[in-house]
Amino acid sequence: MNEGTKKSVYDLALDFKRRHRGGVVWRLKKHCAIIEKHLNPGEEVIFAFAGQKNVDFYDIFETCVVALTNKRLLLAQKRVIWGYIFSSITPDLYNDLQVHQGLLFGRVTVDTVKEEVIISNLPKSGVDEIETNITEFMMREKQKYKTREDNE
User: Fold this and answer.
1) Residue 136 above 80 pLDDT?
2) How many CB atoms lie within 10 A of CB 47?
3) What DSSP designation does 40 have?
4) Taking the CB of residue 93, how many other CB atoms lie within 10 A of it?
């Protein structure tokens, strides 16, 4: 994809939301702006979606955007009054991913070396796409880390 056709984080997240109806998302544009702010030079967003960064399906006020770039996984939440929360998960810190599909919503748990990140209230139809994109990227990138360790 060349520079003229590069989609913004908001466009990618909105595209996901339109294709997979049923998730609970608020203030999508504000959360995406935080991701855009923290992109490093040469970093390009491959995939983006939004959900609630919590365990409980009834807690609908913790919306965050998750963006997969060509280098890492980013999570951003714009607070209502002031400030924001931003997290970055690099492939070397990634352990695995779990998908939970319930009656109404789906949930994804990203296990890292330091913590578990839970994104809930996802549309059931979208959890397979989320799992495929994140897992494929992380498996490919982890192979690069193993090659570097072998060379040292």
Assistant:
1) yes
2) 20
3) P
4) 14
Separation of alpha carbons 123 and 51, rounded Å:
9
DSSP track, 48-97: EEEEESSS-TT--S-EEEEEEESS-EEEEEE-SSS-EEEEEE-GGGEEEE
Side-by-side strand order, sheet with 105-112 = 84-89, 73-78, 63-69, 45-52, 116-123, 105-112, 94-101
The whole model's pTM is what? 0.87
> What is the four-CA torsion angle of 84, 114, 130, 103, rounded to 10 degrees?
-90
Distance CA 54, CA 25 (A): 13
Give residue-wise pLDDT tens across range 88-101. 999 999 999 999 99
By C-alpha distance, which of 82, 31, 77, 36 is closest to 54? 77
Tell me the C-alpha distance between 20 and 90, whole Å.
27
Q: How far is CA 84 from CA 1, 35, 45, 65, 73, in A?
A: 30, 11, 20, 12, 17
Other CB atoms closer than 10 Å to residue 86's CB: what's the count? 14
**47-74 pLDDT, tens digit each:** 999 999 988 777 777 889 999 999 999 9
